[in-house]
Amino acid sequence: MIQVEEALSIIEQNSYKLPVRKLKVSKSLDYVLAEAVYAPIDMPPFRQSAMDGYAFIYGDAKKFEVVNKSKAGSYSNVKIKENQAIRIFTGAYIPDGLDTVVMQEHVAVLNGKIEIKQFPNKFANVRDKGEQIKKDELVLDKNTVINTAAIGFLTCLGITEILVYSKPNVAILVTGNELIKPGKKLPKGKIYESNSVMLEVALQKIGITKVKVFSVKDSLIATKKILKECLLKFDVVLVSGGISVGDYDFVKEALLSNGVEELFYKVNQKPGKPLFFGKKKEALVFGLPGNPASTLSSFYIYVLPALRKRMGFESIHLQKIQREIETDFINNSGKTLFLKALYNDQNVRVLESQSSAMLNTFAVANGLICLPFNKVQYNKGEKVDVIPFNV
Ligand code: AMP
Ligand code: MG
Q: I need a labelling partner for 282 at 20 to 30 A (CA). Which of 68, 129, 229, 249 fits?
C-alpha cells in the first residue's frame, strides 16, 4: 500500500502525452496547442472606424462639408481637404490622411454639412492597423488550452488549422452482476448502474468525447476478453468495480493476465483504498473501486491528472485551496481522508454522510477536504486543504 502523494507521482511519471495532430480550428475546443501560433496578418488589417460617424482631418475646423461615404466592407481611398469629412460606419476603411472620427451622436447635420457639437480628441474612434496584433507577433503560445475566445481569435486572423495534442479515447468498463441499466423496473437484488454515466459526463466536461461504455458480468473469462479489446483500442481504460478482494472481484487478475504492468494497487486513503493503476504499452488503466463515491473521488484525484497529462496540459497537479474548517475534526484512521465538503470564501464544512457507497452529500458538495494520514487533530478555524471540483 502506498501513500497518496506517491500514487500521484507514479501517475505523473507514467502518463505520456498523446501524439500531436493537425486539427481544424473550429473543432479544437479544449485541445492543448502543440505549437506557438504567429499572426499571418495585421489585425485589424487596415485602419478602421470604431464608430458610426464622420471621419475628418483634425485641426481648427468645426464645420465640414460631407463629401464621401465609407461603408464596412468597401474600399475607397479618397483624398479630402481640412474642412471636409466623410460619412463613415463602424468597421469601415478610413482613407489615408484622415485621422479622427466623431460619433454621429455628437454632430448636427444640415444640408450635406456637419457641425461638431462635442469635439473628440485627435485620433479618437480610430482602430489602428495591427492595433490588436501585428503580423508575425505571437497569437497563442504552445500549451495554451483552446477556449471559445481563442477559436474566435485564431479565426479572425484567417487561421483554419492548428497543431494540437490528441485527446484520449477512453473506455469505461463497468463490472458487476447486480447492475442494470436505468429505465427498467428494478428486480430484487439488483441496483441501477450509475458509475458509467457519472464518468462519461465528467470526461465530457473536460472535453473528452470519444468514450465507449462496456459492461461485463463478474466472470474472469468474460472480463479478460473484454479488457483485451479495450487495451488494444483505447488510450485510457477506466474499470469500475471488481478491483477489491471479494471472491467475485476479477479485475486485477484479468488485467495482469492481459499483460498490464501494475504500477500501484491500494492507496492508504478513504475512500478508494483498492485503487489500481497500470499500463500496457501506451494504454493506461485505472481500476476504480465500484462504490460510487469512491469512483468519483478517485476520478477527481487520480484520473483527471493522468488525462490532463495525456492531453498535453502543462500543469496537471490538483489545485488545492486553503479554508478554515468549521468544526473540530479527528482523523485517527491513519489514512488520508478525502471528505465531501462545502466551502465558501473563508470556511469549509465537512458534510454529514461520508460513506463511499453514497452520493447524497457528494451531489451538493463543491470540494473535497484532503486530510493527510499523519495528522490526527484539527481545531475549529484551522486551515485545511480543499480540492475544488469544477468538473
Ligand atoms: P465493487 O467495487 O465491485 O466491490 O462494488 C462496490 C459497491 O459499489 C457495490 O455495492 C456495488 O454494487 C457498487 N457498484 C459497483 N459498480 C457500480 C456501478 N457501476 N454503479 C453503481 N454502483 C456500483
Ligand atoms: Mg462488484
A: 249
Q: For residue 174, what are the CA distances in angstroms to 171, 192, 241?
A: 10, 12, 7
Look at residue 318 in the predicted model and tell me its pLDDT: 84
- The x, y and z cell numbers of residue 181, run together, are 441499466
Three-class SS state of 23: strand
Alpha-carbon distances of 26 from 22, 140, 150, 254, 338, rounded to whole Å: 12, 16, 10, 41, 39
Q: What digits encode the pLDDT tens for the residues 132-189?
A: 999 999 999 999 999 999 999 999 999 999 999 999 999 999 999 999 999 989 999 9
**The amino acid at 108:** A
Which of 112, 258, 241 has the alpha carbon at shortest distance from 179?
A: 241
Ligand nearest the Cα atom of residue 217: 2
DSSP H/E element including 368: strand 367-371
All residue ranges of the chain with pLDDT < 50 are none
Which set of grid coordinates corresponds to residue 254? 484479468
277 C-alpha to center of ligand 1: Å? 18
Q: Are 348 and 384 in contact (CB under 8 A)?
A: yes
Q: Is the peptide bond before 45 cis (omega within 30 degrees of 0)?
A: no
Q: Which of 181, 192, 195, 251 to mutate to test the pocket of ligand 1 (most atoms within 8 A of CB)?
A: 195
pLDDT at 317: 85
3-state secondary structure of 308: helix
**Cα–chain center distance at 390:** 9
Q: 482523523: which residue's cell? A: 331
The pLDDT of residue 391 is 61
